[in-house]
């Protein structure tokens, strides 16, 4: 098992979940659609190429069958994901003086 791949999958999942929460629940978009699509495509490829690492990484169940097309039906309702989302939004607003 490749621990670096497992960690990359976990990081991408957290990014996708937290930004999906911001987009679908908070009506906020901090990253561009192309950046989100790039993360999603990378994650979908990683999960296909590294199924053992994918199964070991956090939120494996919620990303079963994930093809990168949308974050709408992902489990971004987890409190820890929402906390990350709020932190990202707060930092974004602080940096942009919104």
TrEMBL record:
<dbReference type="Pfam" id="PF22745">
    <property type="entry name" value="Nlig-Ia"/>
</dbReference>
<protein>
    <recommendedName>
        <fullName>NAD-dependent DNA ligase adenylation domain-containing protein</fullName>
    </recommendedName>
</protein>
């Amino acid at each position: 098992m490749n621990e670096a791949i497992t960690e990359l999958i976990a990081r991408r999942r957290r990014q996708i979940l937290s930004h999906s929460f911001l987009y679908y629940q908070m009506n906020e978009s901090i990253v561009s659609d192309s950046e989100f699509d790039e993360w999603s495509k990378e994650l979908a490829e990683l999960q296909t190429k590294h199924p053992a690492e994918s199964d070991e990484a956090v939120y494996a169940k919620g990303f079963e069958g994930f093809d990168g097309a949308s974050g709408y039906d992902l489990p971004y309702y987890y409190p820890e994901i929402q906390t990350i989302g709020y932190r990202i939004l707060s930092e974004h607003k602080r940096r942009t003086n919104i």
